[in-house]
Design a protein that fits this description.
The structure is a single chain. By secondary structure, the protein is of the alpha+beta class. It has one domain. The protein contains 2 helices and 4 strands. The N and C termini lie far apart (62 Å). 14% of the residues are buried.
């Protein structure tokens, strides 16, 4: 059971354990989307006010949505999402290491 009432959010839109959601909103809280697909948590970002938000991608329509985290969200899963770019960089790191070595030798 997941409570709709949660600290840090006006309306629950994702599971606090796995952070997955359903594509039910067109705009936050309106429940007006016809898609209904599962929303995979793919990243986190920090809003200008310092608050963290989740980025979800719908596995059905591929739409992206941003949703603020909730007070009872799994911290381990949040940190895993936040560290994913460092663990799996989108480019090879070897050229950076060679460049640094080359610069230190000069």
């Amino acid at each position: 059971m997941v409570s709709a009432r949660v600290p840090g959010s006006r309306h629950r839109n994702h599971c606090p354990c796995c952070l997955w959601s359903l594509h039910v909103d067109k705009t936050s809280g309106d429940r007006a989307s016809d898609c209904g697909g599962r929303m995979e948590p793919i990243s986190v970002w920090v809003q200008p006010n310092g608050e963290w938000a989740l980025v979800h991608r719908c596995v059905s329509c591929r739409g992206l949505r941003s949703n603020r985290i909730a007070g009872d969200d799994n911290e381990f899963v949040l940190m895993s999402l936040a560290s994913r770019p460092m663990a799996l960089p989108p480019f090879p790191l070897e050229p950076l290491a060679r460049s640094r070595t080359d610069n230190n030798e000069q």
